[in-house]
Design a protein that fits this description.
By secondary structure, this protein is mainly alpha-helical. It is about 45% helix and about 0% strand. It has 5 helices and no strands. The radius of gyration is 14 Å and the shape is globular.
Amino acid sequence: MRPLWLCRACGAEWPCAPARLALVARFGQDRVSLAVYLAVLMDRAYDDKAALNPAPGPDVAELYRRFLGWIRSATSRHLVLDVDRSRRNANADSTPPGTDPPDSSHEAPPHQAPFPAPPHREGA
């Protein structure tokens, strides 16, 4: 839920564990695109949190840990291979949950917001 950036499905800080797995599934080994996407969302989260509590403001180190600090370890070769294997078995037309940030809209599925993740480029 924005502006707190909590997952509507589980109430944990977004990106929660299921959202992280879904993001890795969506972006695969393209860590750069994943990092850019999450950096943009981290900036939005900073703005939302700063509007709620302007002094002293959001903890930038905490936001970095939540949004970007996990990417290197989560996109390790083993996890990516497991996710890639499961992606081949899944319906290619379905969008994995968790690839979008939380929103207050009740139309979005759990772990997801109404605006889509950027398209993933194969082979990038």
